[in-house]
Recover the amino acids of this structure.
């Protein structure tokens, strides 16, 4: 049986270092599931691995797209599984790393556990229903997912609201998500998390934003200003600087907002990971002994 080790944790906790340490130890390659690091124009603001880190171990799905490319989570799931299976032809173990929760879930479980309703989407759709009637919802669904439109009760507005909401959230047809059983994964998954006291994590995040600014985040964001309407750029570190360029905020305030929004994102990640009972944790700033204990524990899991 092949093994996928998934390294997870909140933003700024040091996942890249651990993933590289593990990849070196197991003489293998790394698959990224950080959805922001897919875009080659956003290296600084997404804290993509450095040239040295990329040279140390072969990484996949880093800087492989342009911000102008359309790419959905469903497409990623397909591409990542294909790459993992290719890698399993020459390696017994592959490392997955990244803090994009749904993207990790897509790889290790599949996406047919549908997301919760999105309040904003539901509100928008309710407004459309109220102002333009159920016909407008039918029209939207027919355009987005003709296959589901063909089988759904098109007079049941709740069904229409749910399907469109899911399509908007996942960028995938609802019909694909409910018809395919993607639960089967023919490899073991071992999830390794890194944890630190909340204050220490927030301190790291704040410092990391300062380092990004020193490395040229302002110039990077400026070069992407023309694309600010694209989904890829609707993300922490860029939206705040676009407000600075627009004259809405001054620079110090924009930087403090990047820090605040990064901490908020970390908090959401922690909440998500707390729900899982299958994550083995390593403390931030782990020693060689901690790492040796971890690899020993991993081997024990392989035996099981």
């Amino acid at each position: 049986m092949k093994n996928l080790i998934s390294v997870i944790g909140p933003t700024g906790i040091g996942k890249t270092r651990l993933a590289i340490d593990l990849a070196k130890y197991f003489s293998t390659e790394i698959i990224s599931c950080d959805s922001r690091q897919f875009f080659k124009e956003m290296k600084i603001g997404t804290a993509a691995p450095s040239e040295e880190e990329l040279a140390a171990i072969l990484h996949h799905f880093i800087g492989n797209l342009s911000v102008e490319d359309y790419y959905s989570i469903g497409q990623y799931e397909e591409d990542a599984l294909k790459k993992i299976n290719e890698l399993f032809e020459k390696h017994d173990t592959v490392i997955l790393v990244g803090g994009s929760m749904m993207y990790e879930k897509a790889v290790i479980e599949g996406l047919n556990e549908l997301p919760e309703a999105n309040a904003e989407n539901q509100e928008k759709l309710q407004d459309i229903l109220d102002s333009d009637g159920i016909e407008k919802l039918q029209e939207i669904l027919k355009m987005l997912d003709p296959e589901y439109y063909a089988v759904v009760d098109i007079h049941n507005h709740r069904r229409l609201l749910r399907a469109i909401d899911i399509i908007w959230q996942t960028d995938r047809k609802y019909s694909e998500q409910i018809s395919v059983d993607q639960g089967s994964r023919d490899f073991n998954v071992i999830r390794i998390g890194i944890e630190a006291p909340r204050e220490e994590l927030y301190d790291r995040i704040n410092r990391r934003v300062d380092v990004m600014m020193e490395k040229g985040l302002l110039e990077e964001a400026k070069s992407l200003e023309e694309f600010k309407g694209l989904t890829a750029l609707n993300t922490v570190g860029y939206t705040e600087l676009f407000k600075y360029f627009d004259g809405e905020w001054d620079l110090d305030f924009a930087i403090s907002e990047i820090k605040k929004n990064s901490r908020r994102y970390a908090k959401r990640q922690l909440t998500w990971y707390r729900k899982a009972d299958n994550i083995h944790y390593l403390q931030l700033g782990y020693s060689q002994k901690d790492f040796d204990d971890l690899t020993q524990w991993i081997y024990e899991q392989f035996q099981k």
About this structure: The chain has 14 helices and six strands. The longest strand covers residues 187-195.
